[in-house]
């Protein structure tokens, strides 16, 4: 499920446990929510995502990460899509998101297509959730019936984005805390980390592991030595901030190989390898189970993605259905929609721990 920035040091933030964010008790999400009002919504979203992924295979992982980054900040309400205005401080400039989020323009393209077919009906939050499920399927992963009926937030929360999104250097304890804030358990943590079965990260996020782990002047001892040398070829110390595959075996496919990589010390990020290399961790048997049986992983990934997609949702008369995903409606009418586009940085590919 970014996902999941600047440098690793700039990303360092404290996960503030504000109490578990409950699933909305009054949520009435239903896979058939748009059956009568927008019956083609799934096929419309799929067409846009499929066409984009043909040109940019990385976009599938980026859309799952974008959904993750939305849900971990005040719930799955499309707050991550809101741009800066006089009254809104965008989450896009939070440290885990700044110059790194990808897929914003893709969501806008989807919204345009959906609005043409069903004006004022489908929320941006539901579009994000559908795009994430479709990205899983197009990446060779599981499919599921997406519960729908979310509404869009009227505000964003940059401070909460800085607090809640886990970083690539988190140890297992901090990862668990970040997920517990969202009402997600250890199995959810491992399953959703499996989103790193495909996609890319920038070298900046592993340089310490390769050359100066914890200030020792040595590499991270949990890295396989052969893999270490391969990563050093891609990411020379002081060299360009290149992209590196999360999964060196099947980099563009959702499968169980991510977990097999952890078993042989080939997790790319520290937060990946922590799931298997933390002594005595209760995540180890989960990694082993997912590595040995892809269906078990897929079933858990599906369940955790649905669970994550239900975090803090707005339903009923709460929030709104935005006309344009980057602005709340009262602002949308004040701007020339044709001129609005979310800027995507040339430094795409940076990540949080998920």
Short description:
With 354 residues, this protein is an all-alpha fold. It is built from 15 helices and 2 strands.
Structure explained in plain terms:
The chain has a two-stranded antiparallel ribbon. With 354 residues, the protein is mainly α. The chain folds into two domains: 171 residues, Peroxidase, domain 1 (Orthogonal Bundle), CATH 1.10.520; 134 residues, Peroxidase, domain 2 (Orthogonal Bundle), CATH 1.10.420.10. The protein is globular. The longest helix is centred in the C-terminal third of the chain and has 16 residues.
Major sheet, described briefly?
2 strands, antiparallel
Query: Helix count, per DSSP?
Result: 15
Q: Report the CATH topology name of the largest domain.
A: Peroxidase, domain 1
Strand content: under 5%
Q: In terms of per-residue confidence, which ranges show pLDDT below 50 for 5 or more consecutive residues?
A: 1-26, 336-350
Strand count: 2
Terminal CA distance: 7 Å
Q: Helicity range of the residues?
A: 40-55%
